[in-house]
Specification:
516 residues; 20 strands; alpha/beta; globular; seven-stranded mixed sheet; 15 helices
Length: 516
């Protein structure tokens, strides 16, 4: 029995309003598509969202934001907003990150590239040549990316036009697609401490050591922090999603909150719509899942995926063997008195006490103080500290409510003690505290195991094994950190551009000309 064409009310229906989903939706709306976003929560953004408590505006996830530069093609958040007539005011961060590492190895990564390289070579003078070679190759990768408009690599006509415009950049980029950053680092660098530093450089955003981090991603991050720079959106990270929603509506799209999708409807091997928790069915020509790949197609431990097991494509089963969920996080959001933060402090910090514990449970601690850039996020006389450390949901399961609450407090106190190595007066200055666990992230963000994306189960060939937006089910697409090129706001924005372009090609909506 075929579906009545009159029921296909939408050109595209997006499940979830994470940044990847919103970029897809707003791009399609700007092309002229009739778009609906269904969001299970009350506000947009997912892990790029926000929440308010007692005069504080807290970022749900990290506040180290790439993609807000003004030049080139890699400033994807700037471009995504501009395409729907929106813009975020931003505050530049002069330092990407301050590292606090074993053996009193402390180093801050300046926005100025030469200053960063000078500080790193002063610590490892014997490796000056290797340092400049490795980070120089990162620039080669970045320059290739920045020379071309970043859209879907699933569209042959687009690839042909890009190759015609920038053939050398395309060939240069193809060279690094199957390569991981650790392979390149080990080719030019021998000092074990310096190689560990490059591991933590990768781990701070990929949650993987360099040997498992694709060179394309490393080239983007290690160079863009000096090119476009780290820029914090005025009003908090959640403003990005709000602006994208505004742009979506401005271009005729719609978003519905408190609308939890429980099932993707498939008929004759084609996705035709979704079913909500209320039993309502909504039909569309194209379905885009901004849920994780596990929440979409299932996997070990996944409950009630959106696609029933008998419809799961073989390609998704292969993907499950190659990738596993990254750990979630134990997080604390603190409101503190101004005196807890010394003058001239950096906004972002990473703490690691033991190199051997980098990938272990709660091994690395990340600290963000966004009020150093935007004081309006906190009441007068106060600052925000957002700290988080990787934590597996398996550590939080099968606990009684009493033991769960005890563990929350004990682990949060331990994290606060680690922060006090940098800010000794912290404990007596806390005026507000929120604790989140992997169970919190799973509940409020609707993500499998509270994970922040996939990581390779074994060492893979760079980005080549990452799935693109198309799936093995006709009419069904995926977007977000489970797709090429992976985790991070700028990365999921890329997947949103790519997904919208791929669907736009199917619907005949894409402009012939490449973006300038």
């Amino acid at each position: 029995m075929s579906t009545d064409p009159t029921k296909l009310n939408w050109d595209a229906l997006v499940i979830g309003s994470g940044i990847g989903g919103l970029v897809t939706a707003s791009q399609l709306a700007a092309k002229g598509a009739k778009v609906l976003v269904l969001e299970r929560y009350t506000i947009p953004g997912g892990s790029g969202g926000y929440f308010k408590r007692n005069g504080y505006t807290f970022d749900v996830g990290a506040s180290m934001i790439f993609g807000f530069g003004e030049k080139g093609h890699t400033n994807l958040l700037t471009r995504a907003l501009a395409d729907v007539g929106e813009k975020c005011e931003t505050i530049p961060d002069p330092v990407q990150l301050a590292y606090h590492l074993p053996g009193e190895f402390n180093l801050s990564v300046n926005r100025n590239y030469e200053q960063f390289i000078s500080k790193l070579t002063s610590k490892f003078p014997q490796e000056e040549k290797g340092i400049k070679k490795f980070y120089g190759i990162c620039w080669q990768v970045f320059n290739c990316l920045d020379a071309m408009p970043l859209l879907s690599i699933e569209d042959p006509s687009y690839l042909a036009k890009v190759f015609f415009r920038a053939p050398l950049a395309c060939l240069g980029l193809a060279r690094w697609l199957p390569v991981n950053a650790g392979e390149v680092a080990r080719k030019y660098i021998k000092d074990p401490d310096l190689l560990r530093f490059i591991d933590i450089e990768c781990f701070c955003w990929s949650v993987m050591p360099a040997i498992k981090t694709p060179m394309i991603n490393a080239g983007m991050v290690f160079s863009d922090r000096h090119a476009g720079g780290i820029n914090y959106p005025l009003g908090g990270v959640g403003i990005i999603a709000q602006k994208l929603v505004k742009g979506l509506k401005k271009n005729g799209g719609e978003i519905r909150y408190r609308s939890r999708v429980t099932k993707i409807l498939i008929e004759n091997k084609k996705a035709i719509g979704v079913e909500l928790a209320t039993g309502e069915k909504v039909y569309s020509k194209k379905i885009i899942s901004n849920a994780t790949r596990w929440d979409t197609f299932g996997g070990e431990g996944a409950k009630k995926p959106l696609v029933s097991p008998n419809h799961t494509p073989i390609s998704e089963k292969k993907w499950l063997k190659r990738y596993k969920p990254s750990p979630s996080f134990l997080s604390i959001h603190l409101g503190v008195l101004n005196e807890a933060i010394p003058p001239n402090s950096h906004c972002h910090h990473l703490v690691l006490e033991d190199w051997n514990k980098m990938e272990e449970e709660q091994g690395v601690a990340f600290i963000s103080i966004p009020t150093l850039l935007d004081p309006s996020l906190a009441p007068t006389g106060h600052q925000i500290i957002h700290a988080f450390t990787p934590s597996s949901i398996h550590e939080w399961q099968n606990l009684s409510q009493q033991n769960y609450l005890k563990k929350k407090e004990a682990d949060a106190d331990r994290l606060i003690r680690r922060i006090e190595k940098i800010f000794p007066n912290l404990s007596k200055s806390i005026s507000h505290k929120e604790i989140g666990t992997p169970r919190s992230h799973r509940r409020f963000l609707g993500r499998f195991q509270g994970s922040y994306g996939p990581i390779p189960s074994t060492q893979l060939a760079g980005l080549l094994p990452m799935p693109f937006n198309s799936t093995g089910i006709k009419g069904l697409f995926c977007v977000g950190d489970s797709c090429f090129p992976g985790q991070g706001l700028n990365a999921v924005a890329f997947s949103g551009f790519a997904c919208a372009h791929r669907i736009g090609a199917d619907l005949g909506l894409n402009s012939w000309a490449l973006p300038k």
